[in-house]
């Protein structure tokens, strides 16, 4: 049996919803920290005297380590109150942002980003399963959307604001600002997050047992395809908009803001509909992501065309986190924390693999070949989503052998 998570029903309902919001702010803080280099990539590369591909490792390295740290944090936490774990992780996030802001070179920056990876894996693994502990069963969908709304909001506010600060004050100030914000989130957690005890710790064997669930395996494969395909292209969205669409630098922050707003819309739309038809929702998301690179390839040389592609991109990817998390929770309702850590691990492998592989293609062949490979990977995701949707419609078991 997996870890038993005690619900926090003893606290007043309003304070529990405030706790949900605080958890969403934690995901916002850590994802914004992880994604800051996306909006700062070219300026960071120039400042640190390195290539865009190597600077992209500031995204791929912490993501890869987050994949390793997510199950480790859950296992190592044992029976420790999850509120305490979140506080320590947020404190480490403050330190990681300060170290990034002060990094004199690419090696020291990547060293600081290792700590970001630890925080990323831990916060996501713990936060992902808290919705069912903080609200009633009828409100889990909305609470999950709020928690993972932090991911979408990181695109709306975090990445564009980081790009804005980087353009006008320098990229180091963007990381300094995130350090201050992380202090604020830590303070709110100290005030509003109730006790979150567990009655049983998690073992490695329980992870192995859960991987025998075909619905869990299907969700993990789909997570890898969608996230890797997305980050192959999104890691280089700034050079994509500058070099292919020929936007001026002053428009990048605004364009990323538009992308982020549509991402928030996609997040909450998915939170509303995914509880009824999870696989069909994932199919819609997969198709939206699949068509995005194709739009860039066909009409991305025009401002209006690339703008339309960016809106579709935000709308589709905004629903990825909550849609996949909802699928994983349905697939393993009695082992949510384990399922969450597996999902977070594969999610971040997708970020790391997509960013790294995309960087290799961009450095050697350019942006256009990278978009074609991205489209191929996302087509595979759409086909898997179609398979899952057909089984959901017929109410037949999912079988996926690896």
UniProtKB/TrEMBL annotation:
Membrane topology: Multi-pass membrane protein
GO molecular function: transmembrane transporter activity
Transmembrane segments annotated in the record for this chain: 16-36, 56-76, 88-107, 113-130, 142-165, 171-196, 216-237, 249-273, 280-302, 308-328, 340-359, 371-390
Keyword Lyase (UniProt): no
InterPro entries: MFS (IPR011701), MFS_dom (IPR020846), MFS_Efflux_Transporters (IPR050189), MFS_trans_sf (IPR036259)
Keywords: Cell membrane, Membrane, Transmembrane, Transmembrane helix
Principal subcellular localization: membrane
Domain of life: Bacteria
Domain called Major facilitator superfamily (MFS) profile: residue spans: 19-393
Any one GO CC term of the record: plasma membrane
Subcellular location: Cell membrane
Keyword Signal: no
Pfam families in the cross-refs: MFS_1
Cross-referenced PANTHER family: CHLORAMPHENICOL EFFLUX PUMP RV0191 (PTHR43124:SF3), PURINE EFFLUX PUMP PBUE (PTHR43124)
Protein name (Swiss-Prot/TrEMBL): MFS transporter
Originating species: Pantoea coffeiphila
């Amino acid at each position: 049996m997996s870890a038993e998570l005690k619900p926090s029903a003893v606290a007043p309902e309003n304070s529990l919803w405030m706790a949900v919001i605080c958890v969403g702010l934690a995901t916002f803080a850590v994802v914004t920290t992880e994604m800051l280099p996306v909006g700062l990539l070219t300026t960071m590369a120039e400042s640190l005297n390195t290539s865009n591909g190597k600077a992209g490792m500031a995204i791929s390295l912490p993501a890869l380590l987050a994949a390793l740290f997510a199950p480790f944090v859950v296992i190592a936490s044992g029976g420790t109150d999850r509120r305490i774990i979140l506080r320590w992780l947020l404190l480490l996030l403050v330190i990681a942002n300060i170290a990034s802001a002060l990094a004199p070179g690419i090696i020291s920056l990547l060293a600081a980003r290792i700590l970001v990876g630890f925080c990323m894996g831990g916060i996501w693994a713990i936060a992902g399963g808290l919705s069912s502990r903080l609200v009633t069963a009828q409100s889990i969908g909305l609470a999950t959307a709020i928690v993972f709304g932090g991911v979408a909001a990181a695109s709306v506010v975090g990445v564009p604001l980081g790009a804005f600060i980087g353009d006008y004050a320098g990229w180091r100030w963007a990381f300094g600002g995130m350090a201050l914000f992380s202090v604020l989130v830590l303070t709110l957690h100290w005030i509003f997050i109730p006790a979150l005890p567990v009655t049983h710790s998690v073992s490695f064997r329980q992870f192995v047992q859960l991987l025998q669930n075909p619905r869990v395996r299907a969700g993990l494969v789909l997570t890898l395809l969608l996230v890797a395909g997305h980050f192959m292209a999104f890691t280089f969205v700034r050079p994509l908009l500058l070099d292919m669409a020929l936007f001026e630098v002053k428009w990048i922050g605004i364009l990323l803001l538009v992308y982020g707003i549509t991402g928030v819309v996609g997040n909450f739309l998915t939170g509303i509909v995914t509880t009824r038809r999870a696989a069909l929702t994932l199919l819609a998301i997969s198709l939206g992501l699949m068509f995005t690179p194709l739009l860039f390839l066909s009409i991305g040389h025009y401002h209006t065309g690339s703008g339309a592609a960016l809106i579709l991109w935000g709308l589709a990817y905004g629903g990825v986190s909550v849609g996949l998390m909802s699928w994983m929770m349905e697939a393993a309702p009695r082992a949510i924390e384990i399922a969450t850590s597996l999902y977070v691990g594969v999610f971040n492998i997708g970020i790391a693999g997509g960013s790294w592989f995309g960087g290799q293609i961009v450095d050697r062949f350019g942006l256009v070949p990278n978009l074609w490979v991205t489209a191929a990977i996302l087509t595979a995701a759409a086909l898997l989503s179609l398979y899952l949707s057909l089984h959901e419609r017929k109410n037949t078991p999912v079988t996926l052998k690896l």
